[in-house]
Amino acid sequence: MHALIVLAHPDFNSLSHGVAAGIAEGIAAFDAANSFEIADLTEEAFDPRFTEADIAAHRRKTVAPADVLAEQARIDRADALILVYPVYWWSMPALMKGWIDRVFANGWAYDDTSGSKVEKKLEHLRVHLVGNGGADAGTYERHGYFSAMKTQIDHGIFDYCGAPVVTSELFLDSDAGNAAVHIETARRIGRDIFNARDRAAPSSVA
């Protein structure tokens, strides 16, 4: 089994990098036959701008740009997709959102033909979301950020494409010296990604 871990943080020493590495360690520790790839969008200088070429591909007038096709191929090779990101303004960073905007394209992630029902094309892909937030759980609960982020990301993006979200985790109080605890939890998440329970994909969010 193969996992693609996608990371978006400009600081190599960030908690997000530590969490991504912890997940990778957990995957490798569970079964040496499993493999993973870490896609560091900052280091790889992925261009998140949705251009005229992306619009043309969305309208099915041409094929997607080469960099988008390369990212889609990476996902196609994976049994699980793990997104690791800091929470910026109650969502993922613009770099990761732009990666989704461009890569999860019409015709590949879903098929939206005018006048017909949307076809979900990523039902085979298990998704694991791990966000790192500086605020505490009380703040998220009080302002409804937990449900807002699930609606926007879990349901709005991945359910639309049919990809079941197996893990949706927020590591909070990230500035309060909890890094070691969060990274250990990340290792547990990695160990669980390909366990027997998760080999059968859960139902999509209603």
Task: Describe the 3D structure.
- The chain is α/β, with parallel strands linked by helices and 206 residues long.
- The chain has one domain (2-199): Flavodoxin domain (Rossmann fold).
- The chain is built from eight helices and seven strands.
- It has helices at residues 15-30, 52-58, 66-76, 94-103, 137-143, 145-161, 179-192, 196-199, and strands at 2-7, 35-40, 80-86, 110-111, 119-120, 126-132, 165-171.
- The strands form two sheets. It has a five-stranded parallel beta sheet with strand order 2-1-3-6-7, sandwiched between helices. Strands 4-5 form a two-stranded antiparallel sheet.
- Helix 1 runs parallel beside helix 7 (179-192).
- Mean pLDDT is 92; it is low at 199-206.
Short description:
This protein has 206 residues and is an alpha/beta fold.
Secondary-structure blueprint:
Elements: E1 2-7, H1 15-30, E2 35-40, H2 52-58, H3 66-76, E3 80-86, H4 94-103, E4 110-111, E5 119-120, E6 126-132, H5 137-143, H6 145-161, E7 165-171, H7 179-192, H8 196-199
Parallel strand pairs: 1-2, 1-3, 3-6, 6-7
Antiparallel strand pairs: 4-5
Helix pairs in contact: 1-7
Shape: globular
Tell me the CATH architecture: 3-Layer(aba) Sandwich
What is the mean pLDDT? 92
What pattern of helices and strands is seen along the backbone? EHEHHEHEEEHHEHH
Strand content: 15-25%
Give the number of helices.
8
Rg over alpha carbons: 17 Å
Per DSSP E runs of 2 or more residues, the count of β-strands stands at 7
Distance between the termini: 27 Å
Widest sheet: strand order? Answer: 2-1-3-6-7
Report helical residue fraction. 40-55%
For the record, what is the CATH homologous superfamily label? Flavodoxin domain
CATH class (first level) name: Alpha Beta
**Main beta sheet, described?**
5 strands, parallel
